[in-house]
Please model this.
Amino acid sequence: MQWETVIGLEIHAQLATKSKIFSGASTAYGAEPNTQACNVDLGMPGVLPVLNREAVCMAVKFGVAIGAKVAPRSVFARKNYFYPDLPKGYQISQMELPIVGVGKLTINLGDGESKVIGITRAHLEEDAGKSLHEDFHGMTGIDLNRAGTPLLEIVSEPDMSSAVEAVAYAKKIHALVRYIEICDGNMAEGSFRCDANVSVRPKGQEKLGTRAELKNLNSFRFLEKAINLEVERQIDIIESGGKVAQETRLYDADRNETRSMRSKEEANDYRYFPDPDLLPVELDDAFIDAIRETLPELPDEKRQRFEADYVLSQQDAVVLTASRELADYYEAVVATAQTDPKIAANWVSGELAAALNKEAVDVVNSPVTAELLAGLLKRIADQTISGKIAKQVFEAMWQGEGDADAVIEAKGLKQITDSGAIEKLVDDVVTTNPKQAEQYRSGKDKLFGFFVGQVMKETKGKANPQQVNELLKKRLAQD
Amino acid sequence: MSLDHADVKKIAHLARVDVSDEQMESIAKDLSNILGLVEQMSAVDTEGVVPMAHPLHMAQRLRSDEVTETDARELFQSIAPQTEEGLYLVPKVIE
Model:
C-alpha cells in the first residue's frame, strides 16, 4: 500500500527579553540554580503577574512578519497540571484567544520549488523550570531559573508531508525569529524547541490517521531522523494489523529510536480557564503598525533580492540568507571585492561555511573577515593565484597569518604566468619522460594529465593552469 | 447534567484533592447543581455578546522589560524542606 505522511510542528521560541514574562527576574542563561527565580516565578502566595511589554511586542512582530492577523484582544488562561518544575500548579498560556492568528510561511525545497505552510496560531506563555534527574540520593533536583521565561508557541497546520519539508519549515521559522531579533535560536540551550505531530494514512484517504507527538528534538538533524523513524514505525504497526496509539514519544539520539513517554490521556485534561490575575491584552492598530515599521528586510525578500541583484540560484540565495549575519557578510564581500558575485557565493557557502562549521565559530567572529575574503577574491580575479592555491591562502588567513597579499608573498604562492618559464618547464618534463610522450602521441590521451601533474609538481601548483595546458599541447604535438 | 462518583473522583484526582467516600455524595450533588446553573445560563441568547474574560472592564497594563529582582535564593530556600547545590529536592519524578 502507498502511504502518505502528515506532519504538523509546534515550535517553542524563547523570546529574547531581559526579564521574565510576568516578573522582573533575569532570563540570562547559565546562572547558578535558582538565583533567577523570584517569588512570582516560585508561585509564592499573594504575588501577582505583571505582563512584560517587550514580550508582547515580540509576539506582535512575529505576527506581522508572517502576515497574520494580530488579535486586538487576547486573553491569558491557566493550563492546569502538576509537575515539580511548575510551582504554581498551572502554566499561564493562551487558549481561546491567542495573540497571533492565522498566517503562512513559504518554504523553499531547492530546485526553485516552494510550498506554502499554514500557521494556525502563535501564543504567548511562560516556560517551566528544569528537572534534573541525576542522582540526588534518589531525589529529583529542581532549578526554577527558566520558570517564567517568555515563550512564543508557534503552531503549524498539518501541511507538511515529509521530514524534509518539516525541516525546511523549522529552519525557515528559525531564520525568521532570528532576523526579527525576537529569539536567539540557540537549540543546544533550548531557546528554540520543536515538537512534531506525525501520522500516516493510506494515500488518497481524507481522514487523518492517529498521530504521535515527538519530543526532545533539539537539532534539525534529530527532527528529520525522528520523523523518518516514526513514519516507519507507524506503517509497520498498521501493516501488521495493529493500531497506532495517540501518545507522546521521546526521541533518543543515542539509540536513534523513539519511545513512549507516560501515556498522556489523563494529563491532557488541562482544564483551561481565563487567568483572573491577568486582564485581557488590548492592542490598537497604532501599536501594531508601529511594530510593523520596525521589521527588517525579511528572509524571503532578501532571498529574492539576492537572486535578482547577484544573479544567484534559489539554492545559493537560500543558503546565503539563512541568517542575517551570513547575508551581511556576503554582501560586504561582494561590495569590497567587486568581482563575480557567483564566485563570492561559492566561497562564502563553501570554504567559509565549512570552516565556520568545523570550528563551531559564528560568522560574526570569523577569523577570515569579509574584508580578508574580498582581498583573496581580488587576487583570484586578477590571476595572481589560481582557485586551487586560493584555498591554501584561505587556510593561512584562517590561522591568522595576515591578509591574502601577505600570505601570497610570505609563502611565495604567486602564480607563474611567465610563458617563457612555463615553456622551459614543459620542455623539461617532456624530454625527461620520453616513454610517456611516445605513448601519448600514439593515442593514449589520458597521459596528458600526467604531464600537467608533473609541471604542477615542479611549480608546487603555482603555474597558471590554462597556460600549462596550452603550452603542453603545443610541445607534445612536436616530436 | 449530573456527575456520578467516578466523575468526582477523576476531577478530584486532577486537582490533587482528597475526597473521602462519605463526602462523595454531597460533593457530587453540589457540583451537579453548579452545572445545572450553567445549563440554565446557556439558555440565554448571547448572540453578539463578547465573551467576558474578566469582570473588570479594563485592559492589561504592561511593564517595561527591566530586571528588577535580585537573588534571594537563600531566603526562599530557608523554608524549603530539602535543597542541595542550590536545587530544590523533590521526590523522584518517574518518566
